[in-house]
What we know:
4 copies of one chain form a homotetramer.
Chain A: H1 9-33, H2 40-47, H3 61-84, H4 90-107, H5 109-117, H6 119-122, H7 129-153, H8 161-177, H9 186-202
Helix pairs in contact in A: 1-2, 1-3, 1-5, 3-4, 3-5, 3-7, 4-7, 4-8, 4-9, 7-8, 8-9
Chain B binds a DNA duplex (21 and 21 nucleotides) through helix 1.
Amino acid sequence: MQPSPPTRPALRARYDRRRELVVDTAARVFAERGYDQTSVQELTEAMGLASGGLYHYFESKQHLLIEICDQLMDPLLEQARELLAPDGAPDEQLRALVRLWVAHVVEHRGHMLVFQQERHLIERGDEWRNVRDSRKQFERLVAGVLERVHREDAVLPDDGRLALAALLGMVNHTVQWYRPGGRLTPLDVADGYVDLLLARSAR
Amino acid sequence: MQPSPPTRPALRARYDRRRELVVDTAARVFAERGYDQTSVQELTEAMGLASGGLYHYFESKQHLLIEICDQLMDPLLEQARELLAPDGAPDEQLRALVRLWVAHVVEHRGHMLVFQQERHLIERGDEWRNVRDSRKQFERLVAGVLERVHREDAVLPDDGRLALAALLGMVNHTVQWYRPGGRLTPLDVADGYVDLLLARSAR
Amino acid sequence: MQPSPPTRPALRARYDRRRELVVDTAARVFAERGYDQTSVQELTEAMGLASGGLYHYFESKQHLLIEICDQLMDPLLEQARELLAPDGAPDEQLRALVRLWVAHVVEHRGHMLVFQQERHLIERGDEWRNVRDSRKQFERLVAGVLERVHREDAVLPDDGRLALAALLGMVNHTVQWYRPGGRLTPLDVADGYVDLLLARSAR
Amino acid sequence: MQPSPPTRPALRARYDRRRELVVDTAARVFAERGYDQTSVQELTEAMGLASGGLYHYFESKQHLLIEICDQLMDPLLEQARELLAPDGAPDEQLRALVRLWVAHVVEHRGHMLVFQQERHLIERGDEWRNVRDSRKQFERLVAGVLERVHREDAVLPDDGRLALAALLGMVNHTVQWYRPGGRLTPLDVADGYVDLLLARSAR
DNA sequence: TATGAATGAGCCTTCATTCAT
DNA sequence: CATGAATGAAGGCTCATTCAT
């Protein structure tokens, strides 16, 4: 049964705050140890709860995992849509989108690692439909921008389809190596990726 | 205890054949269902063995996983070394290396997906040292080629370091979307990646 | 991981009571069926627990076995030390010690049978060090008393060393045949053993 | 199915020799590691056989254990009967019997330790009837001698019944401490035990 | 809300035994 | 006689989840 949040506003705020903590902690711990290899005990210990306490916030361990993925994809998708809503030069849109995307990924390192690791789960069950849809729609947005870039400039290899795959690979892989506070800002990274794609037109 | 293969040559051949089958099947099934979510029962069923039979070939479920990763990385590393042994033009070496790499990844789809999914395991235990080392050495080879390319042509962004990350991301991500028999051959894909990196010099 | 008892006193009392029940039941059942031949299922069934419930009280089946042995040896050793602390006539000390010992053995029939049966386990692993030490120290206490008896009276065969072996054999063997409520009290038995040893001086 | 020995005499001799080796090795290894904790693999390895090879000599692991006990008890019982067949002074018979018994026990250290450890098995199943009977009959022989000693001399405490228990304890316990080549011969040990029992008459 | 003892299904692994060679 | 790969039942143990407090 889905646990229901308190209705009194004061309690509700507290509840939401703690729920957020649960999700963020779980993202971090799952990323480190793996979803299956993390017991609910370890999880709740890292949160300062007793094992039973998790179930005040989530129906099950798996629903917690789903929430992690939702909290990764939904805001990204929403912001991407807002960004692309107004018309604009395709290459500028691409750059803006990748900047947004890289920043998001870097700020949600745990979520992202979990998202990648549990790919096989995400691709299968019914409970994962929303996550799958979000990803698919985000990829379509990216694909759309790339197509527009290509139509305008013919700059991309393979009419943009291979470029899409390459871009997805590059950006998603960022969480595996990027550490904040290093030589590069997320902006640098994003621009580096975009420059690679647009290199031909750059000269 | 590590199971020992038969010493008599006739039996040994049979043993090796079946062991290979075990590894390949496991790579496929783990890739589909995830390592932790695949029970030894499911695994052995897919191999036509009874559950206990696995332990003639592997000490434990985890050692089977390690073998999958070894069979992915060791031959790749070895072939890459052979390829880079003779001197040659850096950009040609890069192209040859990426072609080899993409082909290997595509031919070991299951191994590769498992390798990515179980990152958190690989990065931790002592048993994983060899796998970690192989990966690190392979990445160094790639980094070395990219440095040479950059030194000769100054074509890469960020003196090659971001290019390395981008290349790793692109190539490794290939298994997530590439299907053999499609529009692109592995060669096309590899050349597409290399062209992205070398685009500036292409003009 | 070693399970930790509750800290709240009310719960702690309950926990300790049940843990005691677990140990006593296990001693009885192990004595009857043998340690290895008793499954955790059978064990917990006899305790009114589900199979997983054992692990709230003990880290493993083996640690439960260790506890049985500790609960046999530690109090015996302690009481023997208290008994022998004050000076006294050696033969009277011997009699008091054997009375204590026989009573203890008879009251811990299960513990004692288990202790004898699993000798090969006790003598080997590192986890058994404390048990081995306790036994050794108790035997030293007995040996000491016998030496003093012999020094005073020269009554024992073989300057007490064979007498020690004989006494250990007699007393430990008691659990194999003694049934409470029979013709003999534990006191009778103890005195019978001591009389055998001191027989020469008795005339 | 009970394996059947070869009928041709030449082969039969070889078979019997190896079967004997199997029993003796098993007695030693079971005594060290425990019956349940010794796998058939370990056992056969210690015998220079492959795991399947055991079943040429014994129907099952348990039948091997039974044989160990039979080879301990049957010759002892037989020799004891022969010894006691002619009339004789009770105390001399007692001494001769204990000498025989101690020698036997010392020469069958492994068998004896196994016999003691697996008491709970011996006392239960139907397959163990013969072993139980042998032990009971041997104890009756000992009891009979002790009774005769007592009737003649009234030297034993408790009309011989406690003396029986004590003697069984002492002698059986011998295997736990006696090491051949030490200060005492088995004869010394046996006489020591008997002297304890007969101490009163000794003066 | 929070606790933590208890559950019980399911896991990986072991191992006595069989049987084709 | 001997081998050793294979079986498959059973074992100890883990852990997500529940619920009385």
